[in-house]
Amino acid sequence: MRFSENFITELVERSDIVDVVSGYVRLGKKSGSNLFGLCPFHSEKTPSFSVSPDKQIYHCFGCGKGGGVINFIMEIEGLTFPEAVEFLARRAGMPIPEEENDAESRKRARMLALNKDAARFFYEQLATPAGGAAREYMAKRRIGRATAKNFGVGFAPDSWDSLRNAMKAKGYTDFELADAGLVRRGKTSGFYDTFRNRLMFPVIDVRGNVIGFSGRILGDGEPKYMNSPETLVFNKSRNLFALNLAKKSKSGYIILSEGNIDVVSLHQAGFDSAVASLGTSLTPEQARLLSRFTNQVIIAYDNDGAGIKAAQRAIGILERLDVKVKVLRLNGAKDPDEFIKLKGPDAFRNLLEASENQVDYRLRSVTDKYDLSEDEQKVEFLKEATDLVARLPGEMERQVYARRVAELAGVAQEAVTGEVERRRKRALRSARQSDEREQTRPERQMQPIERSLRYDDPGSAAAEEGLIRLLALDPSLARKAALPDPADFSAPALGKIYSLVRERISRGESVDPNLLGQELSADEMSLLVRILQKPEVLSRSDQALQDYIKKIQEQRDARQQGNDLLTLQQKLKQTKGYRG
């Protein structure tokens, strides 16, 4: 939907960006009038995420994301522009103008309603005679009625079209069901239910919306779990099963497990902070989502090779977000569900209290790979262990674990400490040289961080950025020269931004980035903020304006000449005997 400029202006004025961002990011370090914190959109150790109270914008110097308060909510909550406006309006106590939603918002709302109705259908089916097998399976896995109700557990009948028929009776079309991933198109014709003869777990986001489903097969067969496909409202790499429940926990940590049944068993046993990824290893997006609700994660993955490998990967992702990580060793059981059934909740609670920090876990994993009674294997152990210790950020931490490695291998601590520091210096030097080579490439420096907005003509793009920046800073300059046409710009994204800026200036309207969110994509908004963040000397703005325009026109003519030569070359290739 389109919102009036007056409404957006008032909404932005009543939604101070520092207040809004502080709900997600710990802002502390100050530079001038700007506040800094760790970016919520990418992994980093040093704060590069800047919030400007004066300009009411944010910008990350690391990943390049930027925009106003509405764009921030769009990015952090995964919302469309109208949904982000509604989110902030509720926060500010402002009524939404009575207008029809745009097509995408209507489709999104319709899909969420369909998912909710489908979840209700599956839940009701669990109590029918057809749901007997599912109830037997739940009894076997000791899932109680109250727990099933809490999670909205249901049953997908062993039928080709039971859900389809029920939803069509409510007015949904086959195409809506297909878009939501609830039915599939047959090879020849017609549609059939995606989930059949499965225990159904609705996937609910942190706002309480049913966004998809995860179905566990009853008995043997593959796949064991089937998740909804990617849809307008469901992205499995950006969501976690049961986070809607775990976010309310008072435990102070979140338990990360692999399967839905593990999560259900943990909650039933009193561990209400358990979540699971949805058929994937932990993703950076899921890790950032976790970091919004906790600063400590306890990994409780399956006690097998795949689980150990997945835990190692999750540790690497989480530690980059400054999240404290511990790991459970499920001795005597393959997963949390089996451990609780065999040994009980008290034993699991003791296991949580004795959980290893991530360094102990990784060092133990390295130790278990080698027979330290053999000299050759001892040397290989020392290589891998010192490499692990060298990557630890704190000097005292490296000292402690270097001593541990020395004791395990039966060698002098000084030898291990020296090797750790040599490896660390070598890694830091290599990383610094690689970064310097990358950052000093002129074409790299000029390119946008957003990969979707590459510049084919960096020379012209620099002038195009400069012209946009000048006009935004001093709109009166638009009357002092014949401005180029947007078609003269080499970069489509810059041409689009320039066109919007020029049109707003011609109408006497503000070029505030907060007011351009309805027209620009997230990447385009980030690009605009980056352009506006660059320095510009306004004392010679008239001359700079002429220089930018001249450069744009010269580069346009050069590109046109190159295109003409290419056209001529293509014609010549068709001439007999021309070899090019």
How would you describe what is shown here?
There is one protein chain. Strand 4 and strand 5 (66-67) form a beta hairpin. The protein has helices at residues 5-13, 17-22, 69-77, 81-92, 103-125, 132-140, 145-151, 162-169, 174-179, 243-246, 260-268, 284-291, 305-319, 336-343, 345-353, 358-367, 375-390, 395-409, 413-439, 442-446, 458-473, 492-506, 522-533, 541-573; strands at residues 30-31, 34-37, 49-52, 57-60, 66-67, 154-156, 183-185, 191-193, 198-204, 210-217, 225-227, 254-257, 274-276, 296-300, 324-327, 356-357. Helix 11 (260-268) packs parallel to helix 14 (336-343), helix 14 (336-343) packs across helix 15 (345-353) and helix 16 runs antiparallel to helix 17 (375-390). Helices cover 50% and strands 11% of the residues. It is built from 24 helices and 16 strands. A 5-stranded antiparallel sheet has the order 1-2-3-4-5. A 5-stranded mixed sheet has the order 13-12-14-15-16, with helices on both faces. It is of the alpha+beta class and 580 residues long. The mean pLDDT is 88.
